[in-house]
Amino acid sequence: MELQLALDLVNIPEAKEVVKEVAPYIDIIEIGTPVVINEGLRAVKEIKDAFPTLKVLADLKIMDAGGYGVMKASEAGADIITVLGVSDDSTIKGAVNEARKQNKKIMVDMINVKDIASRAAEIDALGVDYICVHSGYDHQAEGKNSFEDLATIKRVVKQAKTAIAGGIKLQTLPEVISAQPDLVIVGGGITGASDKQAVAAQMHELIKQR
Ligand SMILES: O=C([C@H](O)CO)[C@H](O)[C@H](O)COP(=O)(O)O
Prior knowledge:
Layout lengths: L1 E6 L4 H11 L5 E4 L1 H7 L2 H9 L4 E8 L3 H10 L4 E5 L4 H14 L2 E5 L6 H10 L4 E5 L2 H5 L5 H10 L4 E5 L7 H6 L4 E4 L1 H4 L4 H13 L2
Helix pairs in contact: 4-5, 6-8
The structure holds the ligand O=C([C@H](O)CO)[C@H](O)[C@H](O)COP(=O)(O)O.
The site of the ligand O=C([C@H](O)CO)[C@H](O)[C@H](O)COP(=O)(O)O has 18 residues, from helix 2, strand 8 and helix 10.
């Protein structure tokens, strides 16, 4: 099981400071969608240059022109790029084909997918690398989480790795871990903590027990 740190509400210098604090405890750095909106793919490049031994995920949430988005994020140094599960299959196939050429990986974000079980099975068959259940900020504000969806994709996904994101905190991590995803994604649960390093270290310890 791996831990991904989502950086959403920071600029590039702040992102570097956070990663410096928690680098020993994380496997993947996510350049979150808000950071890409604010700073562009330059954020991916600067973070990859600063932390070359860590994997970097570009959370582009691609919805169209899958191949092009993956090509541009790959040029910036991303190792993993996100595509939306609600996209057309042709978009996901385009992303996967480009990722194979560039030796990169595709994560499909299932945010707002209505029938998680059947769509996850379809997406799994398209050869993606990760399928991620996700309660985004707007769903979190309505008190939702994706714990049940994780159990659902664990039942139907045969080849992709499974991931979960959305509002995960130290207190809720044991419940998430018990469902055995391959990857746990945490943003505010670490970046919003007064002692980020201590929280990341505790999360790392819990996750690496599995
Ligand atoms: O993808 C995300 C969200 O849609 C904003 O872009 C977050 O990175 C993801 O939800 C993880 O962050 P937390 O919910 O703060 O753990």
